[in-house]
Amino acid sequence: VTSNSKQRITPAPYMNPLVAGVLLGMVLLATFLVTGHGLGATGFTTRLTAWIGMHVAPVTTNANDYLGGMVEEGSPLNAWITWQVIGVALGALLSAFLAGRIYVQLDGRKYLGGSKRPWTALVGGVMVGFGARVAAGCTSGLRLSGAAVLSLAGFTFLATFFAVGLLASRLLREEE
Amino acid sequence: MSEILSGLLLGASFGFVLERAGFGNPNKLTGQFRLTDWSVFKVMFTAIVFAAVGLLIFEKLGLVDSGALFMPPAFLGAAALGGAFVGAGFAIGGYCPGTSVVGLMSGRIDAAIFLFGLLLGAVLFAGVYPSIEFLTSLGEYTKGDTLADAFHISSMSIDAGMVIAAIGVFILGSRMEMKSKGPVRSQV
Prior knowledge:
The complex is a heterodimer.
Chain A: H1 3-7, H2 17-35, H3 42-56, H4 58-63, H5 68-72, H6 80-98, H7 117-135, H8 139-148, H9 152-169
Chain B: H1 3-20, H2 26-34, H3 39-60, H4 76-93, H5 97-105, H6 109-132, H7 147-151, H8 155-179
Helix pairs in contact in B: 3-8, 5-6
């Protein structure tokens, strides 16, 4: 599949947010009923970091206070969250394919730094990766799943998440 | 249900709905912070309310033991500090961890860079962990883990309040969308 062949397909419009919200709520509720916990994402990226470390720098990783525990079990990727994230990737691929929305591109230049877009993506990723470890959760794990069980941590996260996000987005100028 | 199958199926449903809503698109996701596209809050609040009310109903029917559900511990300082980092990183980088996977699967190179950044962020955190370990248990609220514990009101009242808040998000958001360029669409 080349990007050229995809350009000719008109992408389907996005789903109505109310409908998408109800569907997402059903998935979240089903996840709680089946597993006892909600949906997540950074549980996986942390485990992936431990797994890569185990193969690239085993001595350092084993000695590390944070990642060492995960490596000790032998296979840090052996967890439910790994299968869930693989599922997210497959589900997103299927949806994007059916809607004609697969297009290889460097997106977000208009609002997120123009020609510096690769850097905003990298720096943003590092900040999120770091912050999600401080809070022991991310937008899915704490904000969505943590709020559904009415947790104080989930709503506290949501409040500073939005306030600081509002301020940070003011730092970026829209490119013409 | 086997672990692998439930993870794959629930994850695939999650990813499918996120992509349908347009949440692989960084312009749309960050529109929430520019207050020009309220899809993120509309979808999120609807989902939270649906799941919270659903859990309450299942609990009242005796089909779910709420004590057995995972509850994030009330390290409120850690949640606030982490939320600040994630909010800033989301606004600058254009994604959160889950949506960057969706962005990558729809061909976005910037989402791949963001994902690489996530791993670097975890490495950075692990590297300085001994000196910042205290941050992860900062500001513990000791009287309980939920809104109901903290404010001495029933979960049902909180759910009712959240339904009203969600309706408010739809009304306020739609008005602000109309005053601006409106929600980001899939067609460029």
